[in-house]
Amino acid sequence: QVQLVESGGGLVQAGGSLRLSCAASGSIFSINAMNWYRQAPGKQRELVAILTGGGSTNYADSVKGRFTISRGNAKNTVYLQMNSLKPEDTAVYYCNLVGVLTAEGGSDYWGQGTQVTVSS
Hints:
single chain; 7-stranded mixed sheet
């Protein structure tokens, strides 16, 4: 059984930084992609950043140049470094692991979400 545990959210002033972490537990053979999404109140969940198994990254236009997605030395951990935060970045942030291969087969998984609040 794979479980994702997120951490690192909180309250920060505009212009500040936060680093989100997402650690996957379980006997994982491989992961196709590690993503971060966010959902603001009253809005749809949106894709923020993608990290493929090959190491390629992609970002939403709204966060390019400010956010960085990376994989930890413990390969089943993904980070989202968020700099120059703006009030419009306020949302619940979710990590999403796609194509997680275990002895039981392949599946996708979601973290529980972590709140990021940016004050003006």
